[in-house]
Specification:
Belongs to the RecX family. InterPro entries: RecX_HTH_1st (IPR053926), RecX_HTH_2nd (IPR053924), RecX_HTH_3rd (IPR053925), Regulatory_RecX (IPR003783), WH-like_DNA-bd_sf (IPR036388). It is found in: Cytoplasm. 52% of the residues lie in helices and 2% in strands. By secondary structure, the protein is an all-alpha fold. The protein has three domains: 100 residues, no CATH class; 41 residues; 55 residues. Strands 1-2 form a two-stranded antiparallel ribbon. Strand 1 and strand 2 form a beta hairpin. It is elongated, with a radius of gyration of 25 Å.
Amino acid sequence: MTRRTDWPEYADSAGPDDPEGRGRGGAGPGGGPSGGFGEGSRRDGRPEGGGRRGRGGSDHQDSGFPASSRAENGGLPGDPAEQARAICLRLLTWTPRTRKQLADALRKREIPDDVAEEVLSRFEEVGLINDSAFADAWVESRHHGRGLARRALAQELRTKGVDSKLIDEAVAQLDYEQEEATARELVARKLRSTRGLDRDKRLRRLAGMLARKGYPEGMAVRVVRQALEEEGEETEFLEDEGF
């Protein structure tokens, strides 16, 4: 699997609260921004200025919906299925999403449940939604980019609605040896900043850092002890708990 360390942070990106995908742009499935709607075209797929010209020189939309209604629905057509497809494409243009994340976004936009279910199932059929691939990529990116261990990664995937079986399969790509090697790297980077503290505080601070990233307590204490011993610290009587 190709290593990814640049997974977008949802705090900085468009999420279910922002289905319009405001902010930085991205290439859509059709090669253009916002799901294939390029420059000079409107979000309903018709060219700019394509409305009928009525009396008084004003442009009238031929969708038959009042301007206020169109604004509430993001300028999308009135058909709920079309709205659902457009919302999903915009969200997926920004970053991969799980089925649950998209379902939550559609529910917030008051798309009927039966329509949302049909659209989401179709997206799964054509591969635009793939929770298994999402979980694999998430584990790869977050472990190498943030140093998260299996426990923390599994918790993050649960919050995104990934099925427990898929979570187990995804985190299984991290074996015990790889997890411990990453823990050692994290401690090595943090070790210098703890110099000058007494040994118990150093142990608690470093082991606590690993615990917050999901590493088992036994592994965290052992890795920190070994790092301190390599610096000449006596660790035989150091406290193991309280971090």
